[in-house]
Request: fold
Amino acid sequence: MASLLDAEQALQAVIEEQVMYPPTQAAGEVFTLDEIDQSILLCEAFLRHLIKEPENCMPAASQILSHIIWENRDRSEIILGMVKDGISSATYDKLDALFKLLGDLLSIEDSIAPERVASTIRELLIIFEDKKKLPKSTETNLAFLIHKLYDKNRYAKEYLDHLYRTTAGTPNDMLEWIEEWLLKHHYHGIQTPGWLLQSSEAIYSGYDGSD
Reply:
């Protein structure tokens, strides 16, 4: 007959299996930092350095930042705010690395993922519209929004579909300018959005001009 100790150990094993660990942490491997080390890791200057030049510190930057924001709204807001600041000020040739980092952070599957993705997309749409007079930057921005987020991130797709259904044709429409921009710049193979008619062909060919 199993002992009470065996039963307790079995129960503990079940509990441990149900714990949601960050994607960067193996179950059971817990490492505690003292206050000094935590302050160094969470130092704003250090974090901004990781984000400013992510191509020089990937995949470490992605792993560190993913670990920091896991299940933490406040840290998510701060870190993603830094990434969005970088995107807002970046030239088009720097965007790919920033979008790779942002895509990794938005792919985290924790309990606040839908909220994290929706709030980020709202702010990205504002940033992208502000830069729509820069064709090469806008092409890169929309390729990320459509191909990397809408096509591959279920929370992004749900939010953008919801945004289109609830705001299209209203003064609060945040997507209309995207269709207008794509049509104006003669991207072949485009169909009228619905949202972008679920189309991953919206951005079909590159733009030959420059910002």
